[in-house]
Amino acid sequence: MKPVLVTGATGFLGWHVARLLGERGYRVRALARPASALRELDAERVEGDLRDAASLDRAVEGCGLVFHVAADYRLWARDEREMYRSNVDGTRNLLQAAWKAGVERVVYTSTVGCIGIPASGLGDEETPVSLEDMAGAYKRSKFRAEQVALEHAGQGMPVVIVNPTAPVGDHDFKPTPTGRIVVDYLTGRMPAYVETGLNVVDARDTALGHVLAAERGREGQRYILGSENLTLRRILELLAELSGGKAPRVRIPYLVAYAAGMVSTGWARVTGGEPRAPLDAVRMAKKKMWVSWEKARRELGFAPGGAVDALGRAVEWFRANGYAPGS
After folding, report:
1. How many Cβ atoms are within 10 Å of 54's Cβ, its own excluded?
2. Alpha-carbon gap, residue 269 to 220, rounded angstroms
3. How many whole angstroms separate alpha carbon 63 and alpha carbon 200?
4. How high is the pLDDT of residue 93?
C-alpha cells in the first residue's frame, strides 16, 4: 500500500485525520516542521514546510493520497503576510508537488468561512460568495487558497474540497479558536457573550468526513462537514451543563464588542502580545455561520453525531491536560 501524506498532523484536525487513517490500516506519512512534535500517532515523520517547495517534493514522493489539512489558523497576526504564505502559497506548492508526483487524489481542507451565508436561511455549497464577503486575513487567505484548489481541479487534477464548520473535541493542542471558547469558559474568562452562532461538529466525525471525501467525493466539488447549528449562548449553556458551572447571562451589544476589539487589537500591535478580543473575531461574529451539510450526507454518506459528546470530550481533555482546572 502506498503511503498517505497528511499535512497538519501536529495540529488538531490533522491529528484526528492521521489517527483515523492509521486505525484504518493506511501507512501515514506526516509532514512536520523540525520543531513540531507528532504526539500519540503511529506515522512516518517527514520534515518540511509548506513554504519550501523542495521539501514538499520529497514529502509526496510515492504517495497515493494527500490530505492537506494544515493551515495558519489565527484570527490575529502581527504580520498577516505569513498567513498568505502558508495558506495560499503553501497550498499551491503542495498541489503542484502532488501533481508532479502523480498522486491519485488530494483532499483539501478549506473552511466553512468560505461558504456564503444568506441573510435568512442556511448557507450551502452553492450559496454565492466572494472575496469581499471574507472578514479578516484568515478567511481571505483561505478563500484564495480554495480558489487555488478549484483552479487545479479545473485543470484536471483529482482534488476534492471539504469545508469543516467548527470542529471540537479532544487533542486540540494549540487550542484552535473554537477550542479557545471552551477553555475561556472553563477558566472563567467568558463572563458574557455576543449574539452569534456556529455550526459545531465533532472533530472525529470531521476526520471521517475527510476519509469519505477521499473515497466517494466528486473531484472539483466542495463538501460542508458540519453538524449542529447553535447560538453561542446555547454552546455556553451546554458547557455549563457538562462542567457543572454556570452559563453567562449577559449579552454584549455588537458595537460594544467591536469597540473592545479595536482597543484590544490596537494594544496588541503596540505590545506584540496576542489580543484578548481580536477585531477580526468580532467582525466574524456579526453573522451566524449556520449551514446545511446535506450534500455531504447525500453524496458521501456523512452522518455526524451531535455536539454534546464532542463538547464533553473537549472539557475532559482540556482539564486532563492542564488547560483548565479540574471539576
Report:
1. 11
2. 39
3. 32
4. 98
In this predicted model, what pLDDT tens digit does every residue of 44-77 receive, in sequence order? 999 999 999 999 999 999 999 999 999 988 766 6
Q: Which residue has the cell 467591536?
A: 258
CA atoms of 182 and 199, how far apart (whole Å)? 15
Fold of the 4-170+201-227 domain: Rossmann fold (3.40.50)
Query: Which amino acid is located at 35 in the chain?
Result: A
Return the C-alpha cell found at 200.
459545531
DSSP characters over 113-134: GGS---SSS-B-TTS---GGG-
Q: How many CB atoms lie within 10 A of CB 183?
A: 18
pLDDT at 131: 93
Contact 117, 291 (CB under 8 A): yes
DSSP structural state of residue 37: -
The pLDDT assigned to 256 comes to: 73
* Alpha carbon of residue 170 to chain centroid: 14
Q: 87: which DSSP letter?
A: I
Domain boundaries of the chain, sorted by first residue: 4-170+201-227
Q: Are 67 and 5 in contact (CB under 8 A)?
A: yes
Dist CA 68 CA 7 (whole Å): 5
pLDDT in tens, 201-210: 999 999 999 9
Tens of pLDDT, residues 230-258: 999 999 999 999 999 999 999 888 787 66
